[in-house]
């Protein structure tokens, strides 16, 4: 019995040292923290837990990918119009690299955080330093909440016979974006048979569990996704540092990534990781925002488009309504009294 207790103590101590070492390596200069400000304006922002500069850059970066359902009536072939490019310096700036954390406020928040923490530890024990394989598996899971959440809001709109107020499209876009991440990483690595079996099992469990959670507590469901995306940000920061250290070769970017993000022909793997990490920041903050709306009993209000408050510009959804171009699918959300191009959502 004493030998067993001694062995268990050694194992726990080793795991603790591994975790501490990883945390030290992950954030040598930037610590995980919520943004805080003493000004009333900062506290009143919908995305108050991130710095305004981070919100602005995340919104700009997310607008750079090509949504598959989006058609541009202005361009000759309908696919060539992209927003202004965002520089690599912006994508690797401290504002985006910073590991922002939404502090749990309720018991549901704390449960969601613990569930994600356990899942993150399991993933790191399974993949260790195989960051490319970790990314593939992560995206198969991350693509689930968006489609489940969109279906939940769609059925809710039908069941209650009322408008959805702009939640469905950004949730569908989130799922599509995560699925495209998977296809991008499949051009850089191939999962093993064990990893494929793990994905099949995890997807079945996660779809069922998240669907039930979405029905019982949408607030907790979106908070869980917010914490999951915080973990995704950490995972891609690890991936980026592995490339920078030479542990993973900085190979040319795949064709899917170059077309999806409109990258130059000489783009590298590192550039793709930076764009994908910025996408995860958007999903992180948008889901925390949706959870806040449920908490404030504002689930029948339009979500606020990220970057709208700090840019001080009118939402593109309103612009699309007047121009007739289908811009509602471009924006993450609209706020207040804004509607999509058809006048209702």
UniProtKB/TrEMBL annotation:
Species the sequence originates in: Chloropicon roscoffensis
Cofactor(s) this protein cannot do without: Fe cation
GO CC, alphabetical: membrane; mitochondrion; respiratory chain complex
Chief localization: membrane
GO terms of biological process kind: alternative respiration
EC supergroup of this enzyme: oxidoreductase
This protein's UniProt keywords: Electron transport, Iron, Membrane, Metal-binding, Oxidoreductase, Respiratory chain, Transmembrane, Transmembrane helix, Transport
UniProt entry tagged with the keyword Phosphoprotein: no
Compartments, as annotated in UniProt: Membrane
Reactions this protein catalyses: 2 a ubiquinol + O2 = 2 a ubiquinone + 2 H2O
Region (Disordered): 300-345
Stated name of the protein: Ubiquinol oxidase
EC nos: 1.10.3.11
PANTHER family, sorted: ALTERNATIVE OXIDASE (PTHR31803)
Ranges annotated as biased composition (Basic and acidic residues): 300-319
Alphabetical list of InterPro entries matching this protein: AOX, AOX_sf
Cofactor binding remark: Binds 2 iron ions per subunit.
GO molecular function annotations of the record: alternative oxidase activity; metal ion binding; superoxide-generating NADPH oxidase activity; ubiquinol:oxygen oxidoreductase activity
Keyword Oxidoreductase: yes
Subunit composition and interactions: Homodimer; disulfide-linked.
Family the UniProt entry places it in: Belongs to the alternative oxidase family.
Phylogenetic placement of the source organism: Eukaryota, Viridiplantae, Chlorophyta, Chloropicophyceae, Chloropicales
